[in-house]
Structure prediction request, 135 residues.
Amino acid sequence: MSWKKCYSGSNNLYLDHPPIMNDGRNFATLRPDEQINQDVLDENKIMSSSAYRSFLMRNADHMITNNQIEACSTANCFRGFKKPEGGQPNQPYFYVSAFDNTKPFGYSDSDMKNVYLTREQLQSRMVAPTLKIEK
Prediction:
């Protein structure tokens, strides 16, 4: 999708991804962090700070994964995890020849571009093949 075709009001290039913002509005929850922390302490029957520290060290990877999944489900950005089809993201697409009419991800048409491409196609047809004559 091109930025010219984004009519959603945000400065987002890809409408399937969360909006580009400087604050965390899109990921904010209504529960305060203190309440979430207290719920973790109560559920796991943690009474001391050393027990809490060892609990966090044992379960860090699991908690990070859960936080990432929760943030992405809140922001509806699960589609952003899959790779775009036909190559790596942010890699330039190299056309095979001047007659290659493929339109890679992010391609947008314009009048000037079409005039330039048709001129290049006509110019490439004017090249005569070279013949090698062997004796």
The radius of gyration is 27 Å. Residues 83 and 89 are 7 Å apart (CA to CA). Residues 80-84 have pLDDT under 50 and may be disordered.
